[in-house]
């Protein structure tokens, strides 16, 4: 069954076409990679999918319903969550609170019961904390739940961002360079974690990544973006031998491009 | 570890506050506390309300508003009209003043909160001035001469319990999922929005809550000082309130309260040198921004755990400096 | 119709003052993205320097020049002491510092010269020119204001477009980092911007003293805020925009005073600001900028 379908999606800034006529389809439960050289428009695609930017043309449908024109928070409620290339945590909130923000939309109590500290408030907060701690356990961050997000080491900040996105219980998870800045061991752990999350949460994942080892290792299907256009689509094996892709990467040996 | 309302520290705190309330009441009745101290005590309470209310907007939500005195003016005038002209009881007047200010906050907030940073600051300043000019042009409330002879209904009971209630309400809001949504907007607006926080809604809520309590402070002010004029609520007043919040630490209620107390006491000392007071105020602000731009407390809050940690540290039992959600 | 033309002339004189102040706001904002709240108070200091010089028997032009030089130095000092270290700080911290500097100048002014209103010496005995059989009156002071403003505006255009420092200013305002890499001394350029902007504000201060005859330490607050409105209306960072914005605001205010009530004048400026901010935040001559995600 098709979860996400992107039709003829375009976005221009002034005269510059950052994304042009992109078509994509994601089936339920797939793990798909979106790769391409720097400046190819990958993050712009994510910004379009999450409503941060409005498309100039084209349509995005989640479970056959268009989400174009919705605000980012509405799109999040429909089931798309993401991480950011440059980490965007809530720095002065604790690790647990960062995750609890994602449960906000399902909050069971209103402002009045928060202010009057009615029983509903305590129950609601307890529920959120419990769910949050469960999730942090999966991401091995439970022991740091009361630390401020800004005090975490880099790798843990990346993990927390994924945990936070997961907390929104999305159907589609968008990961924007989750392994950026990680060492090989951290990257390997991250790969395991992504696989594990996907199997256990029955989730569809679309990820942008420069680390080809990671992309080729875990993705079932790959889209290649260059100058805002999809130039290839296929399995990792097909992509590796695709002439256009190799040209886009300027003859770099694709299995070794950007990183280990 | 279930946190409950009737926990031991909460009860202790309540007891402490009640003792303070009772002792002060006795002092006022018996004349141990003279008019001068009374005036400053009341000013401290009003300033605490103003500071924590502006902190909801500027500190918690990170939306930079510098027109807070405008909402105070609406509370002051609204409530004064209720008691003076329409003969309503003080309690009703307080509610009308605060709700009136909240409505103004809502009306101002919806169009302006689309703006960011500097532009928002200037727009709120503009709205503050517009509110003042509108009041200036209403003959019914005395125009430039203002309203005189407002009954002095603001007494210790009202001001004490309303100050405590204000702090408690705002603290409870801040530590709920709704307050966290506001803080998330401050911390990273785009991330908050993509994590499902309706940012427009929460900005407007924060603005409305802030305006509500500014209106309450204005109503208490009007019914203590007998007289109000449009000039009382000009940009200078907004600036005063801003200084409380910035010095205390944007986002820290504890900081706002401490700096409201400290600066009110400081102005009382400098009362005879009004000009010098402004020089010191402004220098203080510049120096704090240059040396410690996050303010006295940063975003940290007073907490019982923090006090315990501090005690450990001071008595040498601690395991080195903790990194601190606590009192500094 | 006579009211309209009379108010148009009054408005252009007032608008010239706003325009001169707005130029400084817009230049500083263009180069370091700072709303220099203290700018209106530099204008106040300019008025006082002019006041001092003319009471010492100086003529109008020497007093004007002295005031511009003194304020140019003042502007650079303020930038070096208060703003320079905050160039990488959050915008809010910088804005608060600017508000602090503004209040510092005002309160120091009160300490130094007292809060009372001073009467500016009568450097130009007023001459009234009657146009259309006396239906419209133009004074020689209004002419001086408009002529001086236009000359300064032309001088500024020359500096910005034809001189080396002007090129540096444009480069830094376009991209400070790239300008630095190209060998431009960013610190000096920012200083020069403050100097020029402050000198223009000082000129406005002296002109206002000549026009209205009365000055006080708080005189900078309202014109400062309104000049900022003018800069935003014209598109902040855009020099001709500030000029046009200033003149338009002066004319609108004069028309509101002429046809309605002068009590509403202040509200009109801010209402205009809010409308512009909401409808076209980049101002009449500005271009839009986006935040990068």
3D structure, described in words:
The complex is a heterotrimer of chains A (260), B (328) and C (293). Chain A has helices at 42-49, 72-78, 95-103, 111-115, 119-138, 154-167, 184-201, 212-218, 236-240, 243-248, and strands spanning 2-13, 16-27, 31-35, 57-62, 65-66, 80-82, 172-176, 204-208, 221-226, 229-234. With 260 residues, chain A is α/β, with parallel strands linked by helices. Chain A has a domain at 2-79 and 170-256: 3-Layer(aba) Sandwich (Rossmann fold), CATH 3.40.50. In chain A, strands 6-7-8-3-9-10 form a six-stranded mixed beta sheet, sandwiched between helices. A four-stranded antiparallel beta sheet of chain A has the order 2-1-4-5, covered by helices on one side. In chain A, a hairpin with a 2-residue loop joins strand 4 and strand 5 (65-66). Chain A is globular and about 60 Å long. The two termini of chain A are 35 Å apart. Chain B has two domains: 1-32; 34-234, ABC transporter involved in vitamin B12 uptake, BtuC (Orthogonal Bundle), CATH 1.10.3470.10. In chain B, 71% of the residues lie in helices and 0% in strands. Chain B has 13 helices and no strands. In chain B, helix 2 runs antiparallel to helix 9 (199-225) and helix 3 packs across helix 9 (199-225). The radius of gyration of chain B is 20 Å and the shape is globular. Chain C has one domain (2-279): ABC transporter involved in vitamin B12 uptake, BtuC (Orthogonal Bundle). Chain C has helices at residues 2-32, 39-55, 60-83, 91-113, 140-162, 164-174, 176-181, 186-212, 221-234, 239-259, 265-279; strands at residues 118-119, 128-131, 136-139, 214-215. The radius of gyration of chain C is 19 Å and the shape is globular. Chain C starts with a helix and ends in a 14-residue tail after the last helix. Chains in contact: A-B, A-C, B-C. At the A-B interface, helix 2, helix 3, helix 4 and helix 5 of A face helix 6, helix 7 and helix 8 of B. Chain B: It is found in: Cell membrane. Chain B: One of its GO terms (molecular function) is branched-chain amino acid transmembrane transporter activity. Chain B: The chain crosses the membrane at residues 36-57, 64-82, 88-107, 119-138, 150-170, 204-226, 241-266, 278-295. Chain B: It is a multi-pass membrane protein. Chain B: This is Amino acid/amide ABC transporter membrane protein 2 (HAAT family). Chain A: GO terms for molecular function: ATP binding; ATP hydrolysis activity; L-isoleucine transmembrane transporter activity; L-phenylalanine transmembrane transporter activity; L-valine transmembrane transporter activity.
């Amino acid at each position: 069954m098709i979860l996400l379908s992107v039709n003829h999606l375009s976005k221009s800034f002034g005269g510059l076409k950052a994304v042009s006529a992109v078509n994509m389809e994601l089936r339920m439960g797939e793990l798909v990679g979106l790769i391409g050289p720097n400046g190819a428009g990958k993050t712009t695609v994510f910004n379009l999918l999450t409503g941060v930017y409005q498309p100039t043309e084209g349509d995005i449908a989640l479970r056959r319903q268009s989400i174009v024109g919705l605000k980012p928070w509405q799109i999040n409620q429909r089931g798309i969550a993401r991480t950011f290339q440059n980490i965007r945590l809530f720095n002065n909130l604790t690790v647990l609170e960062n995750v609890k923000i994602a449960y906000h939309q399902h909050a069971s109590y209103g402002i009045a019961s928060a202010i009057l500290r009615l029983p509903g408030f305590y129950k609601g907060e307890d529920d959120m904390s419990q769910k949050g701690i469960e999730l942090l356990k999966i991401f091995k961050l439970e022991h740091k739940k009361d630390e401020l997000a800004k005090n975490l080491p880099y790798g843990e900040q990346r993990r927390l961002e994924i945990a936070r996105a997961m907390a929104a219980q999305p159907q589609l998870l968008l990961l924007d360079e989750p392994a950026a800045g990680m060492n090989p061991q951290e990257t390997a752990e991250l790969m395991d974690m992504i696989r594990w999350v996907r199997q256990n949460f029955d989730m569809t994942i679309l990820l942008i990544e420069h680390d080809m080892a990671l992309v080729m290792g875990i993705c079932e299907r790959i889209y290649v973006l260059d100058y805002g256009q999809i130039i290839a689509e296929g399995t990792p094996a097909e992509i590796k031998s695709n002439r256009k892709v190799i040209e886009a990467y300027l003859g770099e040996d694709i299995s070794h491009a950007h990183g280990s | 570890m279930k946190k409950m309302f009737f926990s031991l520290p909460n009860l202790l705190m309540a007891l402490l506050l009640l003792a303070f309330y009772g002792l002060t009441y006795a002092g006022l009745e018996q004349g141990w506390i003279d008019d001068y101290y009374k005036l400053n005590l009341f000013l401290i309470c009003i300033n605490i309300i103003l500071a924590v209310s502006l902190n909801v907007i500027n500190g918690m939500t990170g939306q930079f508003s510098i027109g807070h005195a405008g909402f105070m003016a609406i509370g002051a005038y609204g409530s004064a009209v209720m008691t003076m002209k329409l003969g309503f009881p003080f309690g009703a007047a307080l509610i009308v003043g605060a709700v009136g200010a909240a409505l103004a906050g809502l009306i101002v907030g919806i169009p302006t909160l689309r703006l960011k940073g500097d532009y928002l600051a200037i727009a709120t300043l503009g709205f503050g001035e517009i509110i003042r000019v509108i009041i200036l042009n209403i003959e019914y409330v005395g125009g430039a001469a203002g309203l005189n002879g407002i009954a002095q209904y603001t007494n210790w009971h009202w001001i004490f319990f309303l100050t405590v209630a204000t702090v408690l309400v705002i603290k409870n809001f801040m530590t709920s999922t709704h307050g966290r949504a506001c803080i998330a907007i401050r911390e990273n607006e785009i991330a908050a929005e993509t994590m499902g926080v309706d940012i427009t809604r929460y900005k407007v809520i924060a603005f409305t809550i802030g305006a509500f309590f500014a209106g309450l402070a204005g109503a208490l002010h009007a019914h203590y000082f007998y007289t109000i004029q449009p000039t009382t609520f000009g940009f200078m007043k907004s600036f005063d309130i801003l200084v409380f919040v910035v010095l205390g630490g944007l986002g820290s209620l504890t900081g706002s309260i401490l700096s409201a107390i400290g600066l009110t006491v400081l102005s009382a000392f400098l009362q005879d040198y009004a000009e010098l007071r402004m020089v010191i105020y402004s220098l203080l602000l510049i120096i704090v921004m240059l040396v410690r731009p996050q303010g006295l407390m940063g975003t940290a809050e007073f907490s019982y755990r923090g006090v315990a940690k501090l005690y450990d540290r001071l008595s040498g039992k601690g395991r080195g400096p903790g990194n601190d959600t606590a009192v500094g | 119709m006579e009211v309209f033309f009379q108010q148009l002339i009054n408005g252009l004189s007032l608008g010239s003052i706003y325009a001169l102040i707005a130029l400084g706001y817009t230049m500083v904002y263009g180069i370091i993205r700072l709303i220099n709240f203290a700018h209106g108070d530099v204008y106040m200091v300019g008025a006082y320097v002019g006041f001092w010089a003319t009471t010492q028997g100086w003529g109008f032009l020497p007093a004007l020049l002295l005031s511009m030089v003194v304020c140019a130095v003042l502007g650079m000092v303020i930038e070096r002491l208060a703003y320079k270290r905050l160039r990488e700080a959050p915008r809010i911290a910088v804005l608060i510092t600017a508000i602090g500097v503004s209040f510092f100048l005002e309160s120091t002014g009160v300490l130094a010269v007292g809060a009372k209103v001073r009467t500016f010496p009568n450097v130009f005995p007023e001459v009234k020119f009657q146009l259309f059989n006396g239906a419209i009156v133009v004074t020689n002071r209004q002419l001086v204001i408009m002529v001086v403003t236009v000359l300064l505006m032309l001088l500024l255009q020359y500096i910005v477009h034809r001189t080396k420092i002007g090129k540096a200013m444009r480069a830094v305002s376009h991209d400070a980092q790239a300008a630095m890499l190209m060998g431009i001394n960013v610190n000096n350029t920012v200083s020069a911007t403050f100097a020029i902007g402050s000198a223009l504000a000082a000129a406005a201060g002296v002109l206002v003293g000549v026009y209205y005859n009365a000055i006080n330490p708080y005189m900078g607050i309202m014109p400062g805020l309104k000049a900022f409105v003018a800069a935003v209306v014209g598109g902040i960072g855009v020099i001709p925009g500030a000029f046009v914005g200033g003149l338009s605001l002066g004319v609108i205010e004069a028309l509101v005073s002429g046809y309605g009530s002068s009590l509403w004048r202040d509200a009109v400026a801010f209402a205009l600001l809010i409308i512009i901010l909401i409808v076209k935040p980049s101002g009449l001559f500005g271009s839009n900028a986006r935040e990068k995600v």
